[in-house]
Amino acid sequence: MTSAEGDRLLEMLAALANPHRLRIVAALHARGRVYVSQLARELGISRPLLHLHLRKLEDAGLVRSEHALSPDGKALNYFEAAPFHIALTPAAIAGAVRSLSAPEKKPDP
């Protein structure tokens, strides 16, 4: 593992540790490229809440976005699931631990 792989694994797992985000990834996997308003309607959540979750998933590299114009000239933000594979085995976790960044030290009170 490279020095950033442990940190990346933690970021991906943290992003997936939310039921809304799991539903988002599942919906994008099933539907392919979808614009935000349509995805919000399908999932029954507000666009601001959806954007919050999509940002977390995108930062973790689990989804990707693209801006495009609709036929009537409206700007649309499309999202799709990014290809990823997470293998959680004891050996993979041990390798990830060896590559973690040093934890930030908090100042003593």
Automatic annotation (TrEMBL):
Which PANTHER family does this entry report, sorted A to Z?
TRANSCRIPTIONAL REGULATORY PROTEIN
Give the top-rank taxon of the lineage listed in the UniProt record for this protein. Answer: Bacteria
Pfam families in the record: HTH_20
What InterPro entries does this protein map onto? Answer: ArsR-like_HTH, HTH_ArsR_DNA-bd_dom, WH-like_DNA-bd_sf, WH_DNA-bd_sf
* Segments passing through the bilayer: none
- What organism is recorded for this protein? Coralloluteibacterium thermophilum
Please name the SUPFAM superfamilies in this protein's record: Winged helix' DNA-binding domain
Start and end residues of each HTH arsR-type domain: 1-101
**Protein name per its UniProtKB record:** ArsR/SmtB family transcription factor
